[in-house]
């Protein structure tokens, strides 16, 4: 529903696509953190907008937010 927080957000990172550029972490550090040269999901928050922004910034479309 518009205006409601997406509490059931799912964030996935395709580690085969991820190049480790760290853009997602820079854009949305509350959700993404780099580990061993790859992005990982630190915490799924209610901030879907933040995660979606990071997905838009990912140069290889490795992030999916649903
Ligand atoms: S922005 Fe994409 S390619 Fe870059 S670290 Fe994040 S998931 Fe990997």
Structural features:
23% helix, 21% strand, binds iron/sulfur cluster, Alpha-Beta Plaits, 66 residues, alpha+beta, globular, two-stranded antiparallel sheet
Strand order of the largest sheet: 1-4
Largest sheet descriptor: 2 strands, antiparallel
Radius of gyration: 11 Å
Q: What is the CA–CA distance across the termini?
A: 14 Å
**Alpha-beta content class:** alpha+beta
**Strand fraction band?**
15-25%
Number of domains: 1
Q: What's the β-strand tally? A: 4
Oligomer: single chain
* Elements, N to C (H/E): EHEEHE
Globally, the shape reads globular
| CATH topology annotation | Alpha-Beta Plaits
Q: What's the pLDDT, averaged over the residues?
A: 89
Named once each, the bound ligands are: iron/sulfur cluster
What fraction, in percent, of the residue positions are helical?
10-25%
Q: pLDDT below 50 for ≥5 consecutive residues: which ranges?
A: none
Overall CATH class? Alpha Beta
Helical run tally: 2
